[in-house]
Amino acid sequence: MDAPINEDKKLKDLSEALENCALEIAESKKREEDLNQVNRGLVEAKAKYEAMLSNIGDGVIGVNDRGEIVYANSQATLLTGYPQDELLGKMLIHSPRLTDEKGNEIPHSENPIRNAFLGNSRISSRGYFYEKADGSKFPVAITATPVVLWGQVIGGVNVFRDITREWEVDRMKTEFISLASHQLRTPLSAMKWFSEMLIDGDVGNLTDEQKEMVGNIYESNERMIALVNSLLNISRIESGRIIIEPTPTALTELLGGVMSDLKQKIESKGHEIILDVSPLLPKVNIDAKLVRHVYLNLISNSIKYTPERGRIEIKIELKGNQVVSLVSDNGYGIPERQKDKVFSKFFRAENVVKIETDGTGLGLYLTRLIVLACGGKIWFESKEGEGTRFFFTLPISGSIKREGEVSIDS
Amino acid sequence: MKNKDNIKILVIEDEATLLAAIEKKLANSGIEAVSCLTAAEAVKSLEGGDLPDAIWLDYYLPDVNGIEFMSLLKKNPFWSHIPVVVVSNSASSQKKSAMLALGAKEYFLKAEHKLEDIIATIIGIVEKSKGEVYNDFAN
Q: pTM for this structure?
């Protein structure tokens, strides 16, 4: 008697199974469609990225975790002159050859992609050359970036471009600086020497009024000389071709030299000087000539922009991994609304421009560039009418040596 | 030792205006100046045999630069001991150290120094070199 029931159940089961089957087929079709879509998306993305990589103006070379070249875009092959199949599989640190201007291979310890891998960070470098397949070479700017996935370096990308044009412009700028310094200084020297002789009475005595006038010419000319010097120094440091030659330096001695140079100016204004240099200060590996310029500028400013019989304090101490120098005065101070312009080119504060007419407005601009080039920081605190405190730091680890072409003093 | 009034300086400066200023100041300081606008003129004067006590040398000359001039001096045993003071408009560290290494006694940047100070330094150098010559004889 159960038979009809069984039949019914069987039919029901069958129909359910068929339904499930249909559902699964539909789902699997959907999955297939989804996969197809993902696949199409991937293919499209790949095509897009490939189009981008092959059409950008920079050379792009990709490496695997062992540093072997696994990809080179068309610009990379064009720039280096090596066809893609000659690059693939080679170690990037050997090929293309990275050299200096004279064609000597760069030591591996300086190789950007190696250092990007080791330091797990992006490395940008200029100043090297790539040797092309035909043996010629070109100056190159390289950015080497590690590719990191789940905390592991799985490869790297070397992006580079030919900077021949910039190189040439830089060279022209340096040549211009050298030429201009010579050409501008000749007439300035003539004015200096002839007015010196007039003042000294080498061609007869002048009346007091005449002496005063020639004295004004002499002083104005001195300002022009200072301006030319500052402009030349700024062009040099801005061109990035400045030589940085760190040597272990005792800052106490360096400061002593600066103070003796400024002795006359300090005495003529009757300032009180307080020196507070930590006896624990070790020698720091810095370019003494550059850092000297920083102290000289900051202390000269304090002397100049503090009314007679002022108080100037110079303090050097070790704080963490930085040597912090402070030049503090109780002088005119910097107006609140002009504080953001202090390090700008040709800036002179409105409260001092009438008191101290002499000044190029280039001193602090240059000083800041120098501090940055030495690996430090500079800042200040000031209140108009109360005084100014300038701080600058130098890393205790020292400045990084730079094989430049020009120095700041000539 | 020669006194100041007997000092003779060979001045090599290609800017006629600057040369005029130098000549005038030297004359007023009681120093005899032999003025030349080029290195060739200077060599001619040296070949004349009446040697100066010091040479005032501009670095950039129309015919040679300071380094070339120094090596020219060094080649002649009668000239090589003459003290040289460079007075130039361009004083990169490289140029300065190259010239000092070649034996120049001092390197002045023109616009940075008064004539009076440059002349005082040269007189000091001449007096010192005379002293050394006398000491050499004494020894």
A: 0.63
